Amino acid sequence: MNPYNLDTLNKRFGLAGILVFKIGPGGLPVVEVLNEQASAMIALQGAHLLQWSPIGEDPVIWLSPEAKFAEGKSVRGGVPVCWPWFGPHEQESGFPAHGFARTVPWEVFETNANQDGSTSIGLRLLQNEATRTQWPHASDVELYIRVGTALELDLVTRNNGSTPVSIGEALHTYFQISDIRQASVLGLNDLDYIDKVDGGERKRQEGVIAFTGETDRIYLDHGADCLIHDPGLGRRIRIHKRGSHSTVVWNPWIEKAEKMGDLGPDGYLHMLCVECANAADDVVKITPGGEHHLWMRYSVEAL
Ligand code: TA6
């Protein structure tokens, strides 16, 4: 069922010359933003940011050339919202990996043309029988997106129930890079991480992260900035965050990418996931009536 009426959405939330609702890839409704600072595209399904490019800058967010767009299916690339768990569900193997948030409809409840020239959009997950079956807790989840020279995302979970709830979450961002073999990630040295490529072994990061094969790590107890260094594009992407205690670093490399089948030829070379998360040991407990913010800002710096 498609809960979106584009005419109504444009009447209520459209911003003339800046923000418009339209049919996007695969027939999925999207909101397109073009302001004086940047352009972006967000699918209403999953509140899934698909594209973000500051004016004059190469795209910062990677979207697979072979991404599939279909109702109820996750999209390869962009910023998938992983909620209310990260990875496989602890008890129910039949529940979707990374939770259901990224594959269900979200509704827009506010848009703003901000004084500083950026544009904000607020989206809320539309709960239904399926989501309540998988997540039988009185809660709301909203995503606030601010599109400008920097990109800000704020994933807000509210516990409306009478008992504490624990959530795992991530903004599973695919960053566009020139060549994974030249890229590196700074800011995670001396941290413990779970190495999912090596049976979940716990290890300690020494120095910068370089990439020579499949890499799938959950860095724990990390709240500081990290940087993606991309000499090929002559830039580094700064990831500044609050409310996130884990950082996930993932590149599938050649074999895994081929098995996944939706990264496109050599797609693995041009993408790198660095995800602000609360995963593994870092799941978040929210008290009754409380709320939790997973907030981050991406910005681009010349080398
Ligand atoms: O965040 C890294 C990861 O958990 C990898 O293990 C890999 O499964 C990736 O997410 C992609 O997951 P998806 O369900 O989007 O195919």
Secondary-structure map:
Layout: H1 6-13, E1 19-23, E2 29-34, E3 38-43, E4 48-54, E5 81-82, E6 106-113, E7 119-125, H2 129-134, E8 139-147, E9 151-159, E10 165-167, E11 169-171, E12 174-176, E13 184-186, E14 192-195, E15 201-204, E16 209-210, E17 215-219, E18 226-230, E19 235-242, E20 246-251, H3 253-260, E21 271-278, E22 284-286, E23 291-302
Antiparallel strand pairs: 1-2, 2-3, 3-4, 5-11, 6-7, 7-8, 8-9, 9-23, 10-22, 11-21, 12-21, 13-16, 13-18, 14-15, 14-17, 17-20, 18-19, 19-23, 20-21
Structural summary, described in words:
This protein is mainly beta and 303 residues long. The protein has a single domain, classed as Beta-galactosidase, Chain A, domain 5, CATH 2.70.98. Helix content is 7%, strand content 42%. It has helices spanning 6-13, 129-134, 253-260; strands at 19-23, 29-34, 38-43, 48-54, 81-82, 106-113, 119-125, 139-147, 151-159, 165-167, 169-171, 174-176, 184-186, 192-195, 201-204, 209-210, 215-219, 226-230, 235-242, 246-251, 271-278, 284-286, 291-302. A nine-stranded antiparallel β-sheet has the order 6-7-8-9-23-19-18-13-16, with no helix packed on it. Strands 5, 11, 12, 14, 15, 17, 20 and 21 form an eight-stranded antiparallel β-sheet that branches. A hairpin with a 4-residue loop joins β3 (38-43) and β4 (48-54). It is globular, with a radius of gyration of 18 Å. The termini are far apart. The mean pLDDT is 97. The site of 6-O-phosphono-beta-D-tagatofuranose has 11 residues, from β20 and β21. Residues 74, 87, 97-98, 172, 196, 216, 248, 250, 273, 275 line the site of 6-O-phosphono-beta-D-tagatofuranose.
